[in-house]
Amino acid sequence: MRRPGKQGIGSHGGRVLAITMNTFTQLVRMKVFYFLVVFALIMLGSNFFDLPQHGLPETFGFSVLRAVMSWSLGAMTLFSMVLAIVATALLLPRDVEDRTLYTILAKPVPRIDYLAGKLFGVLLLLAVSLAVMDLVMLGVLQLRMSLFMGQVEAMEAAGQAAEKVARMRAELLANGPDWSLQGAVVAVFLRAAIMAVLALFISTFSTSTLFTSIVSFLVYFLGYFQADMREAFLRTTGEGLGVLERGGALLLTLVLPDFQMFNVIDAVIEGAAMPLAVLGKLAVVAGFHLLFYLLASWYVFAGKEV
Amino acid sequence: MTDATPAVEIVDLVKDFATSFRRRKLRAVDGVSLRIGAGEVYGLIGPNGSGKSTTMKALLGLVAPTAGTCAIFGRDSLRVDSRQEVGFLPENPYFYKHLSGAETVRFYGRLCGLSGRVLEDRVGEMLALVDLEEARDRRVGGYSKGMLQRIGLAQALVQEPRLLILDEPTAGVDPVGSRQIRDLIFKLRERGITVFLCSHLLEQVQEVCDRVGIIFQGKLVKEGRLEDLISIEDQTEVVLRDASPELVARIEELAVTGGAELVRSGRPRTTLERLFLRETMKGGKDS
């Protein structure tokens, strides 16, 4: 018989994939997808909420569409954030507690592969969850759109002015689901991904899941003030900034993600378009933080005695 | 690499742990050196907190030595690739409860670079070896203690390592499960796999090990071949079957006239464990 050991120790990709899929399966079998039922209920409920409107007859359907978008993206943000932080904070301590970590690291598994596998497992879960929520949201929006379009056609048949009907049809189409909305969903994913890698980093030196979760949520809120803090820091140091001040501002930018950048999601709900360049910028920032905190986690975890 | 390369070579291993506030250092292992030849079954025994598990963890690269070196088949154990040749079963292992037995072995096989047909064959082979074929699709969360130990052995052996490290392999396992694990160690020795185990159950260590080391307060205080360590140099044992009392009396006389002192004579006793196994196995067959 061929000696399996002679196959070699395998590739980084193979090991990371094995841990990724195991983490994903672990989280799925912990029944985390039950929250999708709650999401579906929120979607149903959002149909009964109208955002404040100006009362013009031309805006009759837009407020409902925007309410659906607003509730959906809000729920996506909430669920993805909780999943990213709690699921990641849970994984490492549980492996240490159950001594499963011993059996994994006693195999030819570099610690970076283990960490990357855990992180990618959570990211896969986030991606699948958001994709499902996105499909539900699009379904509801599409249904609503077809209902409103039917009403517009009825108005046209009833002899309403052609110009007015055409304007309403154009407005409805402009406020329906579009690529900017998909960009907003991707932005929600990128923001959650940053929080997942931050939680992973904190859990490499934290002693409990609770501590990791609390600190992660704190960092999340601080992230919304990062830009203000950076500005205030540079302003108070006055003119003629030295290397130290500039270094401090740079360090703040590196360590603390600027979550104000993700306010573009709210702009999309308000009907603004999301240029591809903005989404690209968010992807680059998220990619940087993922790499930075993954390497930082590795640095801490490599020296950890398990 | 020649056959003379030892499976395990630990040289002057020292491991200090920082205590609270880093004021003092706790020396868990203090200058341990040992060498285990390929194909040997080696037992490391010692009381709780004597440094057995730390020595094993250092050998697996799970903790970094403060001083000294550990090598597996000539490779420094801090190198990740040295672990391709080693399987490890920790004390009281818990595996991912969401996985079935087969999925567990498959997962560990993938970590060792196995895939496809080779991996599937190996999963089946390992489950058969540890007698868990019937439970292959059951979630590990529902396994008994003995089954967990056996699935632990299956994952440890999945890449067919040349060295198996077992930390208290029969802790908390009932005598029947314990016997199965012991039989498995015998099978592995026949296959030429080196086994390095630590256990509190001295009788078991005596039964399966070729060589033994005794560790106390972090130091290796005694080491050698089991036969050499436990044989009483100035005594000889003769065991007779169906000997009449007259024959025993004549042998006693002969011993005295030959200048020897008769220390003890009587019926040899079985152990409680053997009696338990005999009775429970018989009961199992009857039912």
List keywords for this structure.
heterodimer; A: 306 residues; mainly alpha; 75% helix; globular; B: 287 residues; alpha/beta; Rossmann fold; four-stranded antiparallel beta sheet; 10 strands
Number of strands of chain B: 10
Uncertain regions spanning at least 5 consecutive residues of chain A: 1-7
- Could you estimate the helical fraction of the residues of chain A in percent? over 70%
Strand content of chain A is under 5%
Beta-strand residue percentage of chain B: 15-25%
Q: What does the largest sheet of chain A look like?
A: none
Task: Describe this entry's structure for a reader.
The complex is a heterodimer of chains A (306) and B (287). Chain A is an all-alpha fold. The N terminus of chain A is likely disordered. Chain B is of the alpha/beta class and 287 residues long. Chain B is 36% helix and 22% strand. Chain B folds into two domains: 168 residues, P-loop containing nucleotide triphosphate hydrolases (Rossmann fold), CATH 3.40.50.300; 42 residues, no CATH class. Chains A and B meet through helix 1 and helix 4 of A and strand 6, helix 2, helix 3 and helix 4 of B.
Strand and helix map with partners:
The complex is a heterodimer of chains A (306) and B (287).
Chain A: H1 12-29, H2 35-46, H3 62-97, H4 100-105, H5 111-157, H6 162-175, H7 179-203, H8 209-223, H9 226-236, H10 243-255, H11 264-269, H12 276-302
Helix pairs in contact in A: 1-5, 2-3, 2-5, 3-5, 3-7, 3-8, 5-6, 5-7, 5-12, 7-8, 7-12, 9-10
Chain B: E1 8-18, E2 25-36, E3 41-45, H1 52-59, E4 67-72, E5 75-76, E6 86-89, H2 101-111, H3 116-129, H4 145-157, E7 163-167, H5 175-190, E8 194-198, H6 202-208, E9 211-216, E10 219-225, H7 226-230, H8 245-257, H9 272-286
Parallel strand pairs in B: 3-8, 3-9, 6-7, 7-8
Antiparallel strand pairs in B: 1-2, 1-4, 4-5, 9-10
